[in-house]
């Protein structure tokens, strides 16, 4: 052994695109000091010792009759007994499983505190978001109340807060304004006629006779809500919760941020006290700002000053709540304080009478009698409800899974779809709009000690108190205050721009998806923005597989580890053997990319074959002999000079699947290389790829050049070359020991 000390190798990736995997720790390489290259070719064959080929016998698959299989499944699912019925009821109503086991001493205090705090926070938000959805304030309170009760019964998450959500309110508001315009309701927003309050009861004298703008608006909203709930329950019934995977985190984040710009734009007119029609359709954000600047001279000074004062109070206190959330037992209910103070100032200052300031108006107590959605509106809103239902269940499922993972329990995605679906279907008969989980309220709920959904019951009790007693006291509350509350609650979504540098470092593709979805949601429309984001995200997935990474591999000496030569230093290669890794499924989209990359990394067999034919013609022309005075052309047996390359090993470990085009491409590649005396070996194929190769008749009877490890494939190539002493010619078969 040399007296020189061995050096620790440098295995840091030089190319981040290909150096994603670190080599196993503890492996040392001895670099050649006289060589300046990063890898070396070794002539010794001692490392790749031969051993018997590995052959696995596949399990025999029984030929199942499809008819018998379906009958068996139906019989199993249609069987009914007391145990199965009990289990089905318990699965459908998860509250029956955990409520009897509820630990009062351990959980009650945290649930009561979190429920009360969330209830206090959700009251002003429900009133504000009603404005965003084009509804009267009472309907937002109805929505949050019923959603809390119903999710308590059907939900499986212990922590999420289900209720009114800004993005969904924006989408509903766009549908409501469109349908109101179609129906000819272009007057200013007014409260329903004939609604009077008598103690805690609500009487509607003219509901059946006259349906004014507010009445028709809630008809539209409840019909959209009903259809969204039907879609969500249908997805739960058919167990298609997997469709949520098409809404990636980057896509949802970009969509919410883009929709937040639209929400901010729609609320800006309230901050200035302007009475403007709501812009809908493509480019509504730009159109709204044009209308605002055209009418900015009509700004009401009272509303503007109130908005600025509320912003100066809410923004710093929100930051303080966020900064000291670990030290505060409960967040400061600044929104409620602002609402109470602004209502008192507006009432005693008579801002509506003196300065013509817009106020919330009369909010009745009690509950309206239930009423079915307007079935005649279903054809008009059915398509709009699809996007709303997808966004609602995607946010709910993602939040429930996130908090379940954090606290060490499991949630059922399909049951969550049932829960959020019924949170929309049942309340749609009680004048409510679409609901979903909301991140901000869920974070507050978790941080204030929530243990179970008992906290949702406490939130519902707070809302019930407001609905029965307190609601009329908000009569003088200015709409600009509600607009400020809505805008301040967009702070989290708008601050996503801070995360872009780190997202760019981790995944540039996700960052591009975020930008495309955000810009299309903001500048085009929310529904089209979501659709564009989903389509672009799928296009990016296809793009990643269309031009995947292809790299040449080398091995670590005295080991069975193979890694990219362009990513790591001090890797070695065997003379005459090229090892190629293709990092993508091989199918019709990228088959040409696979061939061109393989030919570029090794050699192009088509060009080599053409060059050999050209050399053969030239040789025949030169070799002429003359016998007995007669010139005759004699065909000469040509022996081409053997190529230095004799084996190509394709590492298939990163090939997830093959289609018929992929199998045909592998056959074509093998045929082209064998035509010039180079054998092609496949290594580390997963069971799906091996099954596709077998069904596609890739293997020939006389040979099976498929290996379970890279080491086995290279050892086979070395041994076969040693036995033959020459390059492998086309059609030569190898017998395994």
UniProtKB/TrEMBL annotation:
One Pfam family in the UniProt entry: Sulfate_transp
Gene3D superfamilies membership: STAS domain (3.30.750.24)
InterPro entries linked to this entry: S04_transporter_CS, SLC26A/SulP_dom, SLC26A/SulP_fam, STAS_dom, STAS_dom_sf
PROSITE patterns assigned: SLC26A (PS01130), STAS (PS50801)
Sequence segments annotated as region (Disordered): 1-44
Residue ranges occupied by any STAS domain in the UniProt entry: 567-717
Subcellular location as annotated: Apical cell membrane
Residues passing through the membrane, by range: 108-132, 138-154, 216-238, 250-272, 377-397, 417-440, 452-475, 512-543
Chief place of localization: membrane
Lineage top rank: taxon: Eukaryota
Transport keyword on record: yes
GO molecular function, a single term: secondary active sulfate transmembrane transporter activity
Composition bias type Polar residues, residue spans: 13-25
UniProt entry keywords in alphabetical sequence: Cell membrane, Glycoprotein, Membrane, Phosphoprotein, Transmembrane, Transmembrane helix, Transport
Any one GO cellular component localisation term in the record: apical plasma membrane
Membrane-related topology note: Multi-pass membrane protein
Catalyzed reactions per annotation: sulfate(out) + 2 chloride(in) = sulfate(in) + 2 chloride(out); iodide(in) + chloride(out) = iodide(out) + chloride(in); oxalate(out) + 2 chloride(in) = oxalate(in) + 2 chloride(out); oxalate(in) + sulfate(out) = oxalate(out) + sulfate(in)
Regions of compositional bias (Basic and acidic residues) in chain numbering: 31-44
The family this protein is said to belong to: Belongs to the SLC26A/SulP transporter (TC 2.A.53) family.
Protein's recorded name: Sulfate transporter
């Amino acid at each position: 052994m040399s007296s020189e000390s061995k050096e620790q190798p440098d295995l840091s990736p030089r190319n981040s695109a290909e150096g994603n995997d670190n080599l196993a720790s503890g492996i040392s390489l001895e670099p050649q000091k006289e060589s300046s290259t990063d890898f070396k070719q070794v002539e010794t064959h001692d490392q790749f010792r031969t051993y018997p080929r590995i052959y696995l016998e596949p399990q025999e698959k029984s030929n199942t009759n499809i008819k018998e299989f379906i009958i068996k499944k139906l019989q199993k699912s249609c069987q009914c007994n007391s145990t199965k019925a009990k289990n089905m009821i318990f699965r459908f109503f998860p509250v029956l499983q955990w409520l009897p086991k509820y630990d009062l001493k351990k959980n009650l205090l945290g649930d009561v505190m979190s429920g009360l705090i969330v209830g206090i926070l959700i009251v002003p938000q429900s009133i504000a978001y009603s404005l965003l959805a084009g509804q009267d304030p009472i309907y937002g309170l109805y929505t949050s109340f019923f959603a809390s009760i119903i999710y308590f019964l059907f939900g499986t998450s212990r922590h999420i807060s289900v209720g009114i959500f800004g993005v969904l309110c924006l989408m509903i508001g766009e549908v409501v304004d469109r349908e109101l315009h179609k129906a000819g309701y272009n007057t200013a927003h007014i409260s329903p006629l004939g609604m009077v309050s008598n103690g805690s009861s609500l009487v509607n004298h003219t509901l059946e006779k006259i349906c004014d703008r507010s009445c028709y608006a809630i008809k539209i909203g409840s019909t959209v809500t009903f259809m969204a709930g039907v879609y969500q329950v249908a997805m739960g019934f058919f167990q298609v919760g997997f469709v949520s995977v098409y809404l990636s985190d980057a896509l949802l984040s970009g969509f919410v941020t883009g929709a937040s710009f639209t929400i901010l734009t729609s609320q800006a007119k309230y901050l200035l006290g302007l009475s403007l029609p709501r812009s809908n359709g493509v480019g509504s954000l730009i159109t709204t700002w044009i209308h605002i600047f055209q009418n900015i001279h009509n700004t009401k000074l009272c509303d503007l000053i109130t908005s600025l004062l509320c912003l100066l109070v809410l923004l710093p206190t929100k930051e303080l709540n966020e900064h000291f959330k670990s030290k505060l037992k409960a967040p400061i209910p600044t929104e409620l304080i602002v609402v109470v103070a602004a209502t008192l100032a507006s009432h005693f200052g008579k801002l509506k009478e003196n300065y013509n300031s817009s106020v919330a108006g009369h909010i009745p107590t009690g509950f309206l009698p239930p009423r079915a959605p307007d079935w005649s509106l279903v054809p008009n809103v059915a398509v709009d409800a699809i996007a709303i239902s997808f966004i609602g269940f995607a946010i709910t499922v993602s939040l429930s899974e996130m908090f379940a993972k954090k606290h060490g329990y499991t949630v059922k995605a399909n049951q969550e779809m049932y829960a959020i679906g019924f949170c929309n279907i049942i309340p749609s008969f009680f004048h409510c709009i679409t609901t979903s989980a909301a991140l901000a309220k869920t974070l507050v709920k978790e941080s204030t000690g929530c243990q179970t959904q008992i906290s949702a019951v406490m939130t519902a009790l707070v809302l019930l108190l407001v609905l029965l007693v307190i609601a009329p006291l908000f009569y003088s509350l200015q709409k600009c205050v509600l607009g400020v509350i809505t805008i301040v609650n967009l702070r989290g979504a708008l601050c996503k721009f801070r995360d872009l540098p780190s997202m760019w470092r981790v995944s540039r593709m996700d960052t591009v998806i975020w930008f495309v979805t955000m810009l299309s949601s903001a500048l085009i429309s929310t529904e089209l923005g979501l659709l564009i984001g989903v389509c672009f995200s799928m296009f990016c997935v296809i793009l990643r597989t269309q031009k995947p990474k292809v790299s040449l591999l080398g091995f670590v000496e005295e080991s069975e580890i193979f890694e990219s030569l362009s990513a790591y230093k001090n890797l070695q290669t065997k003379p005459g053997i090229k090892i190629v890794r293709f990092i993508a499924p091989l199918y019709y989209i990228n088959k040409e990319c696979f061939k061109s990359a393989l030919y570029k990394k090794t050699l192009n067999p088509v060009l080599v074959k053409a060059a050999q034919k050209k050399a053969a013609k030239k040789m025949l022309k030169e070799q002429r002999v003359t016998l007995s005075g007669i010139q005759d052309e004699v065909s000469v047996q040509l022996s081409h000079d053997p190529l230095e390359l004799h084996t190509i090993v394709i590492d298939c470990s990163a090939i997830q699947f093959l289609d018929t085009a992929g199998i045909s491409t592998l056959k074509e590649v093998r045929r082209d290389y064998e035509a010039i005396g180079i054998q092609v070996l496949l290594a580390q194929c997963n069971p799906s790829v091996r099954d596709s190769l077998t069904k596609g008749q890739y293997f020939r009877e006389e040979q099976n050049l498929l290996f379970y490890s890279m080491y086995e494939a290279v050892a086979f190539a070395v041994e076969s070359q040693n036995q033959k002493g020459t390059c492998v010619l086309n059609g030569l078969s190898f017998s395994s020991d």
